[in-house]
């Protein structure tokens, strides 16, 4: 690293849960309303080909904290999910390993105040929550992956005091973030000690809940647009995971869900309030804000509240809709307003980006998969990210199957573990992955597959094994593990377990 800010900037990571690539106005949505994020993009840099490192949440969050691909850090599925199908569930860590040198630890060592607000979902016990990885303050982060008691208080979150009855969680977390910013400035830290704030909203994850007046607004909007709510869902194939084998994939073809739209608006309102407060405090000019999502939009199951068109599929799938996310960077002191970048990026890059922006060095005791995007933020030519990899050896609750993929340049090759099938798409010219080019480009396919296999071997990625009990489970003569790989609340015995994991 050769570049360093003249003054270390403040760092703000805004991570939304399950937000789709096409869910913002500045990314093409005409149903959802996101004026604050559209304004942020207009004043910053919009990444059109940014990716989450996994199509589900915990692995991506582990990547942000570690700078590593999920398969390297050892968290390849949401915690604690491990469904079975024709293949068995693959073992993985159910907490961020203590051997990880986490992003807040690096920044704290460089003089930063470190704050976490919102979802954590990287450890089942309090000993593995944000404070264990370098955060000075943790508000709302625990083992929960979603608000189990809903978005309206009382929340029942161990690390967040309940508010008055009916208070909305997204608004409450925003208030907590604003209070931390105010406290940071009131203490005098703003003059000499920068901050890193990780604002990780639970929204727009299920349960689908929002203030009634906003829901009514979007019900009326859908009616005014002439959207037939009875015709927007398309029933598809049976779910490949055994615990949902009697359910079908249900694809949403149009963005039209009033409750989801209202949740998006509350999220956008939150971003606007935080940005406005930074401006009021005189901190906006030299604060690097990165806005992103932990995976693609939920479009094929569990209510299928959004649509990722023109991308295929969504959360839980290796296809573009499962991993491509809406990402924005804003840093007035460095980034030229109104920029658009088509550089492919992935979640571990954000670790490297924040570390370089802070003028610090990457940890020497661990392998970092991320590449700093600071040259892109500065508008420099010649940036080369190299290949991006995904390894998701699990059945998802949304219809996806165990698979892996590599993107290099305009080409993306995917491999499916059930039958060894491979696909090759030009995701620049064909982002909807409609024309498989395996037969047209055999040399490209062979080169990419070799690189994918070598990468898997280099990080000792776990490959799913054939389920010898599949026929018995389908017939009902043998019990099916639930989505967490459990029978009667106990882990199913698996081969090749990772030492220290629950399986």
What is the topology?
Blueprint: E1 10-16, H1 35-42, E2 45-51, H2 57-66, H3 70-73, H4 103-109, E3 113-118, E4 137-139, H5 169-186, H6 189-192, E5 195-200, H7 212-224, E6 233-238, E7 248-252, H8 258-280, E8 287-293, H9 320-323, E9 324-330, E10 339-341, E11 345-346, H10 348-357, H11 374-377, E12 388-392, E13 403-408, E14 411-416, E15 422-426, H12 442-458, H13 470-475, E16 486-487, E17 490-491
Query: How would you spell out the order of helices and strands?
Result: EHEHHHEEHHEHEEHEHEEEHHEEEEHHEE
Q: List unreliable stretches of 5+ residues.
A: 1-5, 494-503
Largest sheet: 9 strands, mixed
Structural category is alpha/beta
Number of helices: 13
Number of DSSP strand runs:
17
Shape: globular
Determine the strand fraction and express it as a percent band. Answer: 15-25%
Question: If you average the pLDDT, what whole number results?
Answer: 94
| Gap between N and C termini | 39 Å
Estimated radius of gyration: 22 Å
- Helix % is 25-40%
